[in-house]
Amino acid sequence: MSSCEYFVEETQKRAVARVDDNYLYDSDLKDISAGLEDTDSVVVVNEFIKKWAKRQLMLAKARLNTSTSKKIDDIVKEYRYDLIIDNYVQQIVNKYSDSLVSEDDVVDFYNSNKNSFILNRPISKINFMEVKLDAPNIKDAEEWFLSKNEEDKLKLKDYCFEYAKNYHLDDSTWIYADDIIDKIPILSTKRKLFEEKLKKDNLFLGLKDSINNYFVLIKENLIKGEISPIFFVKPMIINTLNNKKKIEFIEKMENNLLENAIKKQQFEIFDNNDN
């Protein structure tokens, strides 16, 4: 290194403290005192330097007086290797994650494991909305709520967006029935009665209290103990299969790497047996 290069490096990186061969540089302090008055800044910086020095001295003392230093270094090194590998593997898996599990995989897994998908809570295909008693056009909203006409469904969606305190307008999706009960106060107070009604399909309930109107349309129900429909457990199946296929994918990748390394003489095991 020339004297000019040394001078530039020294001006760019100025040491402010030293413990043995370990240096603390001004660049390490640049964010410590940001936004502070000069007097406060000096105090904060000095405290930081002392804390840094104590840490370095304790570390040196610990390394000198314990037999676990090498073991810790080995653990840190192994952990670093694992992080690098895990990060690489995650990138590869993410790249191919969409193609890991097919629709046929989901159906096959579901059909082979139906007894694992027994409902422990009732589920329903259900619509509901909660609107104040003084909301406009309540009668129209009730007609739209019961209608199967697509135009009426759009009107209802716009109405709920503007006036409903709470609503769910997707009766093609299975949801836990007691989640609906918890969202509607008047149903919570009559939980037992409503749970009995949940055993019936194609049921409409029009309820009100002193504040709100509640409209509930139950299209279909499955009770506790029945087998979950595939679409209800599909996310769980995909997650299970993804994890399984990720493990298989990683094992295959590792084995391919090993085989290729042997072929290219990048990896070999030495025979040290004395014959």
Automatic annotation (TrEMBL):
It comes from the Bacteria. This is Peptidyl-prolyl cis-trans isomerase.
